[in-house]
Specification:
Order of helices and strands of chain A: EHHEEHHHEE
Number of helices of chain A: 5
Largest interface: A-B, 30 and 25 residues
Low-confidence stretches of chain A: none
Largest sheet of chain A: 5 strands, antiparallel
Oligomer: heterodimer
Number of domains of chain A: 1
CATH superfamily of chain A: Histidine kinase-like ATPase, C-terminal domain
Shape of chain A: globular
Number of domains of chain B: 3
CATH architecture of chain A: 2-Layer Sandwich
Strand content of chain B: 5-15%
Strand order of the largest sheet of chain B: 6-5-8-9
Low-confidence stretches of chain B: 442-446
Strand order of the largest sheet of chain A: 1-2-3-5-4
Radius of gyration of chain A: 14 Å
Number of helices of chain B: 16
Mean pLDDT of chain A: 83
Order of helices and strands of chain B: EHEEHEEHHEHEHHEHEHHEHEHHHHH
CATH class of chain A: Alpha Beta
Radius of gyration of chain B: 24 Å
Helix content of chain B: 25-40%
Structural class of chain B: alpha/beta
Largest sheet of chain B: 4 strands, parallel
Distance between the termini of chain A: 19 Å
Number of strands of chain B: 11
Shape of chain B: globular
Chain lengths: ~140, ~450
């Protein structure tokens, strides 16, 4: 089953629609609540990252009987140092974003924690693609 | 489909009055209602007893079934277990004393206010919270409709509910203990709870744990209001002494914010169906960080807005606030309920108030078998795209999504949608409403 959503820069208020509709399907499949929570948190974090840092992007979610694969691809500045970005508390978020309560530097570490597989493709000045996989029924 | 019934329901439909208008099916938060053969039907395991359908029905076809009032005659000692919400139904010129004397006249031998149990219960909440540092957000178990809503729609949050019974369970056991201490036999005591809503009846009739609730019968608040109002009009009553051991805080418990006020460290109060659902969604997605206790009631203005209340909810609230102020100002010295000071009794009571397990009862899952559920979900998604998406309810389901679900579950036929075929080529009359094409309105996922 495929879902796709657009990401708009700076639109924090609309973020969360993607995770809401994915959540509905996962509940219908009776996926364990703990797994649903991990998926929703990871997807939401990734969406917020793109909203805060990129110029725009797209979310593609594919659910099959074994796993859910969530691809969040943005056009943006890219991540200069992935290892640093994976460090809790490290953030390049602007003051404006921080004032909205985001940008605490927990995004990527939180995504890592809540997914079974995380692939980060990033090119400076081009954009970042996160591929997040969570196995269902594990 | 034969299914085990988890919940007792007191919400009933009068087929004679029901016109099949579909108002109620749209109001239901769990999509538990459908129209079949021109009448509304209720799915027992989806219904959470919130009473929204009853509120919205223009034909008064939905009602709350209560116990026979004559049931009282079977008992020598007839206790009215009355929430303060009942007094709040009357205009302020009718004093508490006068209202209670009417209850005596109606045949009750004892009148006891439910909220006597709140202080004790709040202590148990606190103990539970202290014993579970791993839980960040605790949801109050007070509103039974909220508990059921969580069970069927937010199963991941069942462990956040404090597994304790309600003030009425405390009060019933206290009054039982007091009467039996006076030498009265258990069999001759009948305790009757006066309820502001259907959900409380359901929790008495099928308590989550299956334990005895000590309640002989439940009386609808609006029914008793009518009986008392008639007597009040006829005036000239013997005054009944009101037991003034309730504190202002006890009195405000059923009002929004009354329960959370006892947890000043960190607490939240949420009322109203839409607010409760939004809060639970946010909590589930961890979009909000809510440490401490969340008081959550399904009715706007909490029990003041119960479906069986009579008075305007804000006026009712005001009456309780005034009573609470008066009590705190005037009655400085208050005698505590001695029964709740006896550790032998309270230790045992604390054990009886524990609900062993609040189980998730997800009504969202399509099948127990994962691959079947997966195929059904795929089919549903495909169907939803083919349906007109106007949620007209002509098929008897509240939304096109609910109809698609009924079809994949085998509970409805795709032919039930009269607009599926004409949506792409609407007749002139509908073209004015729908515009030229409907396809692309229904295909975006965002």
């Amino acid at each position: 089953m495929h879902y796709s959503f657009d990401i708009e820069r700076g639109n924090f208020t609309d973020a969360g629609h993607a995770s809401a509709s994915v959540k509905r399907t996962l509940k219908q499949l009776d996926v364990a609540p703990a797994s649903i929570k991990r998926i929703v948190v990871a997807l939401y974090e990734a969406e917020i990252n793109a909203v805060a840092h990129a110029y725009g992007g797209k979310i593609d979610v594919e659910i099959d009987p074994e796993k859910i694969v969530m691809v969040v691809a943005d056009e943006g500045p890219g991540i200069p140092n992935v290892d640093l970005a994976m460090t809790e508390g490290w953030s390049t978020a602007s003051q404006k974003v921080r004032e909205m309560g985001f940008g605490a530097g927990m995004g990527l570490p939180n995504i890592k924690k809540n997914t079974d597989e995380l692939k980060i493709d990033t090119r400076i000045g081009v954009g970042t693609t996160l591929t997040m996989t969570v196995y269902l029924n594990s | 489909m034969a299914q085990e019934t988890y919940f007792h329901h007191s919400l009933k439909i009068n087929d004679y009055l029901c016109t099949g208008c579909s108002s109620c099916i749209r109001a239901c938060p769990t999509a538990a209602l459908r129209i079949r053969d021109g009448k509304v039907i209720l799915s027992d395991n989806k219904c959470v007893d919130c009473g929204e359908c009853m509120r919205t029905c223009p034909s008064r076809a939905i009602y709350v079934k209560q116990d026979d009032f004559q049931l009282m005659d079977n008992f020598k000692y007839r206790v009215a277990l009355v929430p303060v919400t009942f007094i709040a139904q009357f205009e302020s010129r009718y004093k508490t004393k006068a209202i209670y004397s009417c209850l005596r006249e109606l045949g009750f031998t004892h009148i006891y206010e439910v909220e006597h149990g709140t202080k004790f219960l709040a202590r148990l909440y606190r103990q539970y919270m202290a014993d579970h540092p791993e839980i960040r957000t605790f949801i109050s178990p007070y509103c039974p409709a909220v508990i059921r809503l969580i069970q069927v729609r937010f199963p991941s949050l069942v462990d956040n509910i404090i597994p304790l019974k309600s003030p009425l369970d405390v009060a019933a056991r206290v009054i039982l203990r007091q009467l039996m201490a006076e030498g009265v036999s258990r069999g001759s005591i009948g305790i009757f709870y006066v309820t502001p809503c259907a959900a409380k009846i359901a929790s008495v009739k099928s308590p989550v744990s299956g334990q005895d609730t000590c309640i002989a019968g439940v009386i609808n608040m609006d029914f008793l209001y009518n009986k008392v109002k008639l007597l009040l009009k006829n005036a000239g009553k013997d005054a009944v002494a009101v037991n003034h051991s309730l504190t202002g805080k006890d009195i405000l418990w059923p009002v929004t914010g009354g329960e959370s006020a006892l947890f000043s460290e960190s607490s939240f109060a949420v009322d109203g169906l839409a607010n409760v659902i939004e809060f639970l969604e946010n909590l589930e997605d961890e979009n909000i960080d809510v440490p401490g206790l969340v008081e959550m009631r399904i009715c706007d203005q909490s029990c003041m807005g119960g479906p069986l209340t009579v008075n305007n909810r804000f006026v009712a609230r005001n009456r309780l606030e005034k009573r609470a102020q008066l009590v705190d100002r005037v009655l400085r010295i208050r005698k505590e309920d001695p029964t709740l000071d006896n550790p032998e009794f309270t230790d045992d009571l604390a054990k009886q108030l524990v609900i062993p397990a609040i189980k998730p009862r997800s009504m969202l899952k399509l099948s127990d078998d994962f691959s079947t559920a997966f195929r059904m979900a795929e089919e549903m998604k495909r169907l939803e795209k083919a349906l007109p998406g106007i949620n007209c309810a002509a098929c008897g389901a509240p939304t096109c999504a609910a109809f698609a679900e009924d079809v994949v579950r085998g509970e409805a036929d795709i032919d039930g949608c009269v607009f599926a075929d004409i949506r792409n080529n609407p007749p002139d009359a509908l073209r004015k409403v729908w515009g030229e094409r409907l396809d692309n309105q229904n295909t975006t996922t965002k």
